Amino acid sequence: MDITFIGHQSFMVHHGATRILVDPLLEREFGLSQTPRLEVFPSRTVDLKAMPCPDAIVLSHEHPDHFHVPSLARIARSTPILLAPLMPSYVEEALLILGFSPRRLTFGETVTMGDLALRPSPPPAETPLWERRVAQLFFTTADGCGGVFMTIDAPVPRDADIDPRLVVVANNSQFAPPGAVHANANAALRRDDRFGLRHAGLNILRTLLLESADAFPRSAIAISGGGFIDAPESFGPYLHADAARLASYAAALESDLPVFGLTPGDVIVLDETGFARRHARWIRLDRARIAAARRQLRQFASGSGRHMPATPPLADERTLRSARRRIAAELPLLARGILRSPLGAALLAACESLLLEIRSSRGDERVHYVLDLTRSAFVRRRVKDRFQSGYGVSLFDCDFDALLDGRVLIWDLAATAIETWYRRGYTTSVLPFLFTWYCEAMRPSLARKITLNAVHAVTSGGAGTSLPARRPTGASRRSARRNRVL
């Protein structure tokens, strides 16, 4: 068995005559909305003509870095698609429009496809709501040998009844350099310590390696994820997103734990004697772009980051009035959502206030709303120092309106388009609440709208030519007769 790393968290699993694509991300950029775009990093090009045709596709969940419509539009429509058990219905609707015939998996069910077998499992109970629909994937050969377990975007499970040879973990940390404006930063702290950078690298290694080693002590580990650059940002890739460097640190600290830091094009081969590594020729690294992006990160000047919108400014007075009406209608719902969340519990326990700052995309105007705990509502007030409120969030009117109108997802704004601040732990701060309140599970109608718009864009001719259907070889025909094939 071998797995090929395509980039970010996209893979091709191969054994014998069978190849399965996991969360295909085949373009240089991704995202469902037209703006902003996220660039895959390390930068690479996937040669679709040279890429082996898959026998099936597995989609682990609905987020746009895993369910990428333009990439799927390039694949033969006869290719079977297996959906995570909790995949939203609008994903199935979109695939049917594209011409696919998706089938929904069942947690715990082992499905055999030619020479490979797959068993999906639900994420651990501590997984946040916005990742709760993830299906973690366990691949083996058809006769049950070997084993690759992909945690996808969820934590490593501690009670899984499997013994994989390789565990693929996702580095989802997004640490911007000191002085950068980013949604993950605490804007109220000193600009050189807004991310807690002094211990960030150690915490990443602990989360990715020690938790995996505790759960699967006999398994090798492969690090993926974190492989993108937010287009509006000025600092390039995130700190501690270099999987190869993280793996080298782990190797220096613990020689008995095989750790692979994946770079696009890496192929990890699992054979009887251990592991081997080679490169897939159909994935070409853009070394010039990689070097330029890393140089951009090294040269980023502290304090030069700017809070900037992710979407175009509101065009005229009519558009501005429409946006204001949409935002005003959202505020009562938002207030009640906050009060029933862990963030609301933290506000009530400490008698803290929360400030919502809406910045004009057409000038310097800032409108402030304070969450009045006695009225359970947002009240407009004049504010001189926004940090007097222990908790707060600042975003642009054009971005808030685009989010409420289904033109962008919350993930599109979670970079330089949002500023947050808080006095206590991150888990009870504003950003996790926004991820929960505006995620696909809570706002399926908005996610459906942007997804179907993306489908319309590719069916109108923007996605290019799809791959031809794979012609079955003699070996794969024999596998089909021998196994239960979808």
Description:
The chain is an alpha/beta fold and 486 residues long. It has 2 domains: 2-299 and 452-482, Metallo-beta-lactamase, Chain A, CATH 3.60.15; 317-442, 2-Layer Sandwich (Nonspecific Lipid-transfer Protein, Chain A). Helix content is 28%, strand content 23%. The chain is built from 12 helices and 25 strands. It has helices spanning 69-72, 89-98, 200-215, 243-253, 287-299, 317-339, 342-350, 397-404, 410-413, 430-437, 444-462, 474-482; strands at 2-7, 10-15, 18-22, 29-30, 38-40, 44-46, 56-59, 81-83, 102-104, 111-113, 116-121, 136-141, 148-150, 166-170, 220-224, 228-230, 259-261, 266-271, 274-279, 283-285, 354-359, 366-372, 377-380, 391-396, 418-421. It has an 8-stranded mixed beta sheet with strand order 9-8-7-3-2-1-18-19, covered by helices on one side. A 7-stranded mixed beta sheet has the order 10-11-12-13-14-15-17. Strand 2 and strand 3 (18-22) form a beta hairpin. Helix 2 packs parallel to helix 11 and helix 6 (317-339) crosses helix 8 (397-404). It is globular and about 70 Å long. The chain starts with a strand and ends with a helix. Residues 471-486 have low confidence and may be disordered.
